[in-house]
């Protein structure tokens, strides 16, 4: 931990309010200890393998200077996402490019770097306001070393027709980067955000935080795609707060990394709020994909629904641990949680731990999980009709994921993500 100190946090520079914020967080980190698998929230994880002493924050002199932040760009993934209203390109946590349609800019929409356009008290007050209610060592670490971050600020009543794309790229052996994203959708607004994390095969740690604020009667759709190289560690927090009659749909696709963790949480603060959470994950070789979720119902007549589906092959492992919390005031609430897992090889493993905390007495609530191999009857049915064994298993895996793919908030990326799953299945096949 010697590289993650107050001086390193201060050296990242930027506006004084951000420097002060980093220094305060670095002091908290310095007084903390690394989490261990003995803690329930880290149970079954590989956190004991992470030696932060081997890494350092990307030095300020190595961070790309913002330059012309309004320059276009984004690469193949942005093209696959199709037409978009705005885009941010983020390298090692620093925004290096951003663009936004003039029509939306005229309406007060902001798509820019927190470090350069988070000058008003509203933005500064919103940053950290969502995650501070769910304490986490790595969130504090991100607070201390994020050089800036992606800001998506939608004023009240503004409808953004086409998605806003955020592209994160992280690299550098022995280095750690700290992507940060803040999405704020004002009352009666509407927006779709697509966020992608990628890296080469670097021995790199990515500590990412995404905060989503959904105002009264706002509609937000959010898709996160993690496609890191095979040596990258990704530890992510994605948390949302929902207002009255707010609607949030979040989706996660996790395919890369050595160890990749996502803590995904929604807090339904006001009556009528609705949250839908879906995920697809596929691990091969010795990957571990780790998910911890929370559906937190604070107010009455709220609704949440979760469907996470994963598959593991070779010696890969997955963990899903989910909590539905219905507080005393959450009368008439509905909450559903489903986790399904396919284990494709004897050396692979999947853990699934659904949990409930119910303090209200007039609610509808259910949870369920399964872990098992491909159904022999399905395989036999296909093979008896001339489908080769490998092709039969591939079809079953794709069919298993299909209901989640159909619920992703942006259909333009579905074909490409399906192709990536097929490639992983074919390259990792040992059956």
If you had to describe this structure to a student in words, what would you say it looks like?
There is one protein chain. With about 425 residues, the chain is of the alpha/beta class. The protein has one domain. The chain has 10 helices and 21 strands. A hairpin with a 2-residue loop joins strand 2 and strand 3. Helix 2 runs antiparallel to helix 7, helix 8 crosses helix 9 and helix 9 packs antiparallel against helix 10. The longest helix is centred in the C-terminal third of the chain and has 17 residues.
Q: What would a concise description of this structure say?
A:
The protein is α/β, with parallel strands linked by helices and 431 residues long. Helix content is 21%, strand content 38%.
The low-pLDDT segments are 66-72
Structural class: alpha/beta
- Percentage of β-strand residues: 35-45%
Number of domains: 1
Shape call = globular
Q: What is the mean pLDDT?
A: 93
**Strand count:** 21
| Terminus-to-terminus distance | 42 Å
Helix fraction, binned, reads 10-25%
What is the tally of helical segments? 10
- The gyration radius over C-alpha positions equals 21 Å
Biggest sheet details: 11 strands, mixed
